[in-house]
Known about the structure:
- With 801 residues, this protein is of the alpha+beta class.
- The protein has a domain at 3-43 and 213-425 and 600-792: Multidrug efflux transporter AcrB transmembrane fold.
- It has helices spanning 3-15, 17-35, 53-65, 84-98, 137-147, 173-176, 181-199, 208-242, 245-268, 280-306, 309-336, 344-374, 380-383, 389-404, 406-424, 442-454, 475-488, 500-511, 524-532, 542-545, 566-584, 596-630, 633-657, 663-693, 698-725, 733-762, 769-772, 789-792, and strands spanning 71-77, 103-107, 113-118, 123-128, 158-159, 164-171, 204-206, 458-465, 554-561, 591-594.
- Helix 10 runs parallel beside helix 12 (344-374), helix 14 (389-404) crosses helix 26 (733-762) and helix 23 packs antiparallel against helix 26.
- The longest helix has 35 residues, at 208-242.
- The two termini are 28 Å apart.
Amino acid sequence: MSLLMFRIIARLILKNRPVVIVIISLITLVMGYKATQLKMLYEPASLLPADDSVQVNYDRFTKKFGAGGNAIFIGITDNKFFTYKHYCYWRDLQHSLKTITGVKEAFSIYDIYTLKKNTEPKKFQLTKIVQVGIEDQQQLDSIKQVIYTLPFYKGFLYNDTASTFIMMVSLDKEILQSAQRVTLLDSIMGTINHYERQTGLTAHVSGLPYIRVTMAEMVKSEMFFFIFLAIAVTALILYLFFRSFKVVLFSLVVVGVSVIWAMGTLAFFGYPVTILTAVIPPLIIVIGIPNCVFLLNKYHQEYRYHGNKIKALQRVIQKVGSAAFMTNLTTAAGFGTFVIAGTQILREFGLVASVNILGVFIVSITLIPVIFSFLPPPTDKHLKHLENRYMRRVTKFIVDITFYHRKVIFGIAAFLILVGIIGLSMVKSNGYMVDDVPHNSKVYRDLKFFESNFSGLMPFEILIDAQRPKGLMQYENLKHINELQNKLKRYPELSKPLSIVEAVTFARQGYFNGQASAYRFPISMEVGFIMSYLPRGESDNAIFNNFVDSSGRYARIMYNVADVGTQKMNVLLDSISQNIHDVYGAKSSLVSITGGSVVNAKGSEYLVHNLISSLILAVLLIVVFMAGMFRSTKMVLFALLSNLIPLLLTAALMGYLGISLKPSTVLVFSIAFGISVDNSIHFLAKYKQEMLLSGNNIGESVRFAIRETGVSMLYTSIILFFGFGIFAASSFGGTVALGVLISFTLLIAMFSNLIVLPTLLLTLEKIRKKQFFSDPLISIYDEELDIELSELKIKDDVDNQ
């Protein structure tokens, strides 16, 4: 944007102050109304594009067997489970749960069935073990003996080794997709809490509906918590810097308006609040405050210089406007590159964040001059911060070290780059399904309970195509499934399987009158006898319907898997694929591995690759923007080097600390680069102004640029450091990583831009100006081009115009 453009903008803003206020107020009212329509995301976000082979396989599987995910699991460890008193507690819990609106069924070990052979009609009958209520301990003991003779349910509903038992609670899908889901889960948890108080036991609760609703509510509460925390932290730092309540108040007005716009934008696009988009409002506060700092710092500098308030405000727009626009544009580019990602949740985050970062620029460049044009000019008290002796000492130290210790700086920079490269080589890529679940939360602890006792709850499915209807019931196909299951027994990460083979094995036990020793896969001669007893009607075939589709062509092997991370999951998938090939040979292509755990693992990998591509694109875009602004290859390269060093050191820190490369950590680099390069732009813009004014004296230009922009760079870097640092208080690991790693990056970037960048520029002291500069797209401000104050027609008795 040219100098002429910002002259026009300054004139329009200062001549039409009431109109500006009315327009911004109207937009804010509309956005505020839209923000009341925001909704939370309670469904899992898809990480893979629709045409990805893994996603295609999963979609094909869900069409045949359903998506599932409508049940929660209640697990307990109880050595007295088979005492009559504890049976009554468990029974009452189950009955109470069934009375809750939205609970379709509650199923536990006392609801299990056995298969009984009826010889007259030659038919198996599903018979419930507990036909009527258990009346005493003796009856319960006999029921216990029957239960333990049915291996089909072992590892599925109970773990007798650990005295652990599960109750599955099936929920109404329509209610889970409505606003009543929170009430439903609260009612269930209230009933479970009553059971805990009665028994003194700890009930562990898990399952996708429970995890999704709990996390969504945590995201909702954290969003508002971080908005208020960001306001508090930035307000305190602003006051410490400027010692002015007016500066603090009206800076918060600017970011407050911007936050309303951001939330309204989310609702306008119809995007729900996710764990990522919930971060946008506090991000807008943290990113918007530095705009106010640069504008107000320049306003105070200008007013101290000539004492004319309107001229000072006009020069703020012209002098700072172009650089502020570029800094916001580069920051927006860092977020905007996520729009190209194939993942919907990232696209939503990138679009809303980038649009509103440009929005906060518009709000700050208009409201700050307009508001302060109505206020009395700053007093000596308000200008005192410009003479802050601590900041003057810091800037003097920076000048001294860059001018007189360049070799030391280059040596330290080279050492840090070497350390960074070594650390970078140690970074590993690994993500978990519950990466964002707080590890100290009940949700995470309960999930680990199910992993340790039942190998987890994450669905892991194997889909088998028999190539023709009813083909699965052929003995050869059953034998292959059984052989595959036997090979997969060696993986401790996998739970006990549920499949047509397990059902046929259960049927064999029923055929031989329930003998526990008869629970094994039938030989070929037995299959015909056993199959002849299977019910013919679909309604009677419930035990098989979960494992075979209606055509009898497709079968599933249902496993649960522990959350082992993407690295181990890939090893597991490769190993199981080899097992499938060993069993099926040339027909192994008819067997596919799918399930939510597989989709999530592949989705995490896809996301990491996308985010790395986004980082590369962000760097390229910002380089193009800076090249257009400065028209100097050397300046762009210096700025690039100064801001890549912090990214390298952040990656090295991850390597040394063992922090894995995963979606939440890769996200850091594009955002941090887009923000950290802002200081380079402010510094280089001032440097180029001084180059023209000083007659191409590089040394003097660097010295003056450090003194004038150094304080603002320090102010904004400190605000950004603590602003992003607040996310360390999050309950979600991904949000903590986002905050801590970006804070670290920006802290290093501050020193890099204040020390390394000026030192690099000083190496050009003997190079002629014509070898270094050509005409920039953004013109350098010339004070002779001030707007005539008489043109503004602003009535202000205080100003001497």
